[in-house]
Design brief:
The longest helix is centred in the middle third of the chain and has 18 residues, at about 130-145. Helix 8 packs across helix 10 (about 230-240). The chain has an eight-stranded mixed sheet with strand order 1-2-4-3-7-8-9-10, sandwiched between helices. It has about 325 residues and is α/β, with parallel strands linked by helices. The chain is about 40% helix and about 15% strand. It contains 13 helices and ten strands. The protein has helices spanning about 5-20, 70-80, 100-105, 130-145, 160-175, 190-195, 200-205, 205-215, 225, 230-240, 250-255, 280-290, 310-325; strands at about 30, 40-45, 55-60, 85, 110, 115-120, 150-160, 180-185, 260-265, 300-305. This is AB hydrolase-1 domain-containing protein.
Length: about 325
């Protein structure tokens, strides 16, 4: 295996973020609702008489949820001395006009002339949703490191499902995130194509793939369709997250998080994040942490008998990991 140049890969990822980010104007960090160019932030912390800097944990929600859904978890972290942070992902929560906005944006976008176009086929400010979400998290880190109540060297990031994937990419792209715990969000996207394990992931945004299938004149979404580089799977994913099934897939971006502490939490029977697809990124990550002389800072836990769900066990393991490395 050719050695992964972490600095080079991170630079390529950041270049992609800068060149594909939204052209909607100046970015603002607000602790209230706003436009897509604004980032609503929910921050919870305990009032203290002393004004010392505290560790922070960013928790990211999954698909079709919002930052308020995480409030019980944020309160638990805040009660234990953390500054607990959550944001709305793009087209979710305060950044959505309805409960179906995210789905609608994945399917359609109104062009400048009012012509309705499929978002996976055009390059515009609504494309590259996952990539732009990572850009949001980089700007969030910039904001958090400037707060007087947060220790800038002790910012952790976690999330479940879609949020877990965003946490993984944010930690790979931005070293401001000192500790990472992606939950049910890490998989081998290329591996899933090569081993015919893509169905469950495609089903998570099936409407998008069905629209693409119709446009391309295909009768069904099958393995042959998915494997073809010019076909549906890559057209869709290259719009949502360019490089997801190639240079920025988990075998490359998981190892570059080293030497920062990384805990990956998955379900043993999760069809969206099959364990077999994590063997290569796991082995490469272990090698990276061993070479950095900190093998104890990497761990992958697959909860027995669990599918694609966030469990109390996972919440506890994540909490313990942050306590170990942020306090």
């Amino acid at each position: 295996m050719e050695a992964i140049n972490a600095s080079k890969l991170r630079s390529q990822f950041l270049y992609l973020l800068r060149t594909r980010r939204s052209a909607q104007g100046t970015w603002y960090i607000h602790e209230w609702s706003g436009e897509q160019g604004c980032l609503p932030v929910l921050i919870l912390s305990m009032k203290e008489s002393s004004h010392h800097r505290r560790p922070a944990v960013v928790f990211l929600h999954g698909n079709n949820k919002c930052k308020e859904w995480l409030r019980p978890l944020l309160e638990a972290y805040a009660s234990r001395g953390y500054v607990a942070v959550a944001i709305d992902s793009r087209y979710h929560g305060d950044r959505a006009s309805s409960m179906t906005t995210y789905r609608e944006v994945l399917l359609y976008h109104h062009g400048e002339k009012g012509i309705q176009c499929h978002s996976y086929l055009i390059r515009n400010s609504m494309d590259y949703l996952s990539i732009l979400q990572v850009w949001d998290l980089i700007k969030l880190a910039d904001y958090l490191t400037q707060r007087e109540d947060i220790d800038p060297s002790k910012i952790g990031i976690t999330g479940e499902s879609l949020g877990g994937m965003h946490a993984w990419f944010a930690a790979a792209a931005d070293t401001c995130y000192a500790v990472a715990v992606p939950i049910i969000g890490v998989q081998g996207f290329r591996w899933s194509i090569d081993h015919d394990k893509w169905q469950s992931r495609v089903d998570s945004i099936k409407d998008v793939f069905q629209e693409a299938r119709v446009d391309l004149g295909k009768r069904v979404i099958d393995k042959e369709v998915v494997e073809n580089v010019s076909c549906i799977y890559h057209r869709v994913w290259d719009r949502i997250a360019p490089g997801l099934a190639s240079q920025f897939d988990s075998p490359y971006t998981i190892p570059i998080i080293a030497p920062r502490p990384l805990l990956i939490l998955n379900g043993e029977k999760d069809p969206r994040c099959p364990l077999e697809g994590l063997e290569i990124p796991k082995s490469r990550a272990r090698k990276a942490y061993e070479e950095a002389h900190c093998p104890d800072k990497f761990k992958l836990i697959a909860q027995p008998g669990i599918g694609h769900e966030l469990t109390k066990f996972m919440v506890k393991e994540a909490s313990d990991w942050f306590d170990r490395f942020l306090k």
